[in-house]
Specification:
It contains 14 helices and 9 strands. A 6-stranded parallel β-sheet has the order 2-3-4-5-6-7. A 3-stranded parallel β-sheet has the order 8-1-9. Helix 4 links the parallel strand 2 and strand 3. The termini are far apart. It binds 5'-deoxyadenosine.
Length: about 350
């Protein structure tokens, strides 16, 4: 087996590695010299395509009703201790309008799997948003749907879709996601790609049963999917979930994985997750230094945010604090870019 230093250089040069080699890097980057070199190369790689730009997305958590019962998630079906809310279509439009006038050109509509929002209802919403804000991109993050629904939403104007695979391993996946199917989740991701969405995958760092070999497999899956966006973040245990006695995921490991993702997929759009920002005070700065290039400030109405605690103490960044956000990005040595921020050279000829 080649030495880790050499493997890191090889990954930088070729943008791919065997699972075993990725695992070795994950295992050995506890060492500061290797870690620093990895970060250095990830930063250089992001600059080839995205220079120092950081894209901003306005994130709207529009419903916390959810049919699913994921073991880690605070808005899981069986958590009876939170109050459930859903925004009306009018409220969603208002929030997007507010984000637009602040300068945001991507709206991310995220929610639990809430059947109230039918495909037809969302199609109408998308068409209105696209009519009013033709130069803005809309990203959906609303879970698993049939292919026909994904198609309809795409034709109504959705540009991007976030659906983390969470765990690329049937056994781990089925343990943590009762009543859900690993095969269906992967099917969804390939459907989204095929339809023409800029597609986001990703996983939680520190799930039970996840070792470094498993993490390497997550990376290989993301590479083989050619994900346009990749969202990862450390597990933050939520007291009202079956994982309540588990421990939080490692922030340092998250940065190592962010850097590896950047090297595997040089053109990917990689956000710094709110989870990183919650566990690490300098989460943004460190995330940007690991190759991330997207931030997602939250635009949900203040009174609803406490009920969107997918994990405890969720440290949101508010969309309206734009000047602070820009200043912080600048201080870290980067520049804020308020354009749509599509994947570099995305050939999403659509409609
Ligand atoms: N800790 C960290 N991430 C979580 N997510 C859900 N619950 C948690 C948690 N407790 C992530 C999932 C989901 C994304 C929106 O949030 O990966 O896809």
């Amino acid at each position: 087996m080649m030495c880790t230093h050499f493997l890191i250089e090889k990954l930088y040069a070729t943008h791919d590695l065997e699972v075993e080699s990725l695992k070795k890097i994950i295992d050995e980057c506890g060492d500061d010299r290797k870690y620093d070199r990895l970060m250095d190369l990830a930063l250089r790689t992001r600059e080839i395509y995205y220079e120092k730009k950081v894209y901003l997305r306005a994130l709207l958590e529009f419903t916390n009703y959810c049919d699913n019962n994921c073991f880690y998630c605070g808005i899981r079906r069986d958590n009876k201790t939170i109050s459930r809310y859903r925004l009306s279509i009018e409220e969603i439009k208002m929030c997007c309008g507010r984000a637009y006038s602040l300068g945001y050109r991507t709206f991310v509509l995220q929610g639990g799997e809430d059947r109230f929002f039918s495909t037809d209802l969302l199609s109408d919403l998308l068409q209105t948003l696209k009519k009013h804000y033709p130069d803005a991109a809309v990203t959906l993050s609303i879970g698993e749907l049939r292919k026909e629904s994904y198609q309809q939403l795409f034709h109504s104007g959705a540009d991007r879709y976030l659906l983390r695979q969470e765990a690329f391993c049937p056994a781990i996946y089925h343990k943590l996601h009762p009543d859900m199917s690993f095969e269906n989740r992967i099917r969804c991701l390939y459907d989204l790609k095929e339809i023409g969405y800029q597609t986001g995958a990703g996983f939680i760092v520190g799930l039970p049963g996840q070792d470094s070999l498993q993490l390497a497999k997550e990376l290989k899956f993301i590479k083989s999917l050619d994900a346009d966006m990749v969202g990862i973040g450390p597990l933050i245990v939520h007291p009202q979930t079956p994982l309540k006695n588990f421990k939080n995921g490692s922030v340092r490991k998250t940065f190592i994985l962010l850097a590896l993702i950047r090297l595997l997929l040089p053109q990917a759009l990689i956000p710094i997750s709110t989870a990183v920002n919650t566990l690490e005070k300098r989460g943004w700065e460190m995330g940007l230094m690991s190759g991330a290039n997207v931030l997602m400030p939250v635009i949900s109405p203040e009174i609803m945010r406490k009920n969107y605690e997918i994990y405890t103490g969720k440290n949101n960044v508010d969309v309206s604090k734009l000047e602070n956000i820009k200043k912080r990005i600048q201080t870290a040595g980067f520049t804020t870019d308020m354009s749509r921020g599509d994947r570099y050279h995305f050939k999403g000829e659509k409609r």
